């Protein structure tokens, strides 16, 4: 298990960043490695992003030694989305089978987690978001069918997409974590249109289901001072409260969005007109 730490950067820092620095602060590239569990701890609202890809063995994790607590989830909750083939997550002996696009909510206090795949030919690809939690909420599997869909966008504007809420007060409660998956409709390329800011929450996007040669051009930054990140399959992007977030793909893609902060009001956002972007 690995744990990388990012300390977070503000809009003034980003003004002087070159591509390498921007990517080092805002892009997480090494989440999904065969038979490994990789975590990145960001001081942006203390979100931990993780990836686990069990291929030839069961992967065990949950120790808190890298973050100074007895267990990783002693004071945290976690969402685990399966972006790959069928697999199983066991939480302190309780097993949950996750198909592609199912999400498991793991409540505070979990100690030992195990991740396994049904088949090494099509391994599970578990993507994790964990945030500090102030209460115990029961573990719960949310299948894709149980998630709440929202149809957004317009094919004529190349931004038709379906957003599914999984960890959300109307679907499955948590303390402060929100998590969902957005799938672009065939032929649409733009996500998160119009772009927005949410002063009371940070967000992380993990782009997946891209082909090896395709990329998402992710836009970030203050509306009047945008930057871009060129993102490949399985890469995650951090979006602090001060940053817009939107992207366009060169081919089909989907993404997991996770949020935490002051509230769980999904609609507590400030849209940014495209005419304001620079
Ligand atoms: O395509 C979209 O629109 C999204 O998925 C938006 C994200 O859910 C988001 O940015 C929530 O604040
Ligand atoms: Zn957002």
From TrEMBL:
Listed cofactors: Zn(2+)
GO molecular function, one term: isomerase activity
Organismal lineage: Bacteria, Pseudomonadati, Pseudomonadota, Alphaproteobacteria, Hyphomicrobiales
Organism: Pseudorhizobium halotolerans
Cofactor info, note text: Binds 1 zinc ion per subunit.
Enzyme class: isomerase
Family to which the UniProt record says this protein belongs: Belongs to the KduI family.
Pathway noted in the entry: Glycan metabolism; pectin degradation; 2-dehydro-3-deoxy-D-gluconate from pectin: step 4/5
Record protein name field: 4-deoxy-L-threo-5-hexosulose-uronate ketol-isomerase
Cited function: Catalyzes the isomerization of 5-dehydro-4-deoxy-D-glucuronate to 3-deoxy-D-glycero-2,5-hexodiulosonate.
EC number, UniProt record: 5.3.1.17
Binding positions for Zn(2+) per the UniProt entry: 196, 198, 203, 245
Domain of life: Bacteria
Cited Pfam families: KduI
InterPro entries registered for this protein in UniProt: KduI, KduI/IolB_isomerase, KduI_N, RmlC-like_jellyroll, RmlC_Cupin_sf
Keywords on record: Isomerase, Metal-binding, Zinc
PANTHER family: 4-DEOXY-L-THREO-5-HEXOSULOSE-URONATE KETOL-ISOMERASE (PTHR38461:SF1)
NCBIfam families: PRK00924.1
Catalytic activity, reaction form: 5-dehydro-4-deoxy-D-glucuronate = 3-deoxy-D-glycero-2,5-hexodiulosonate
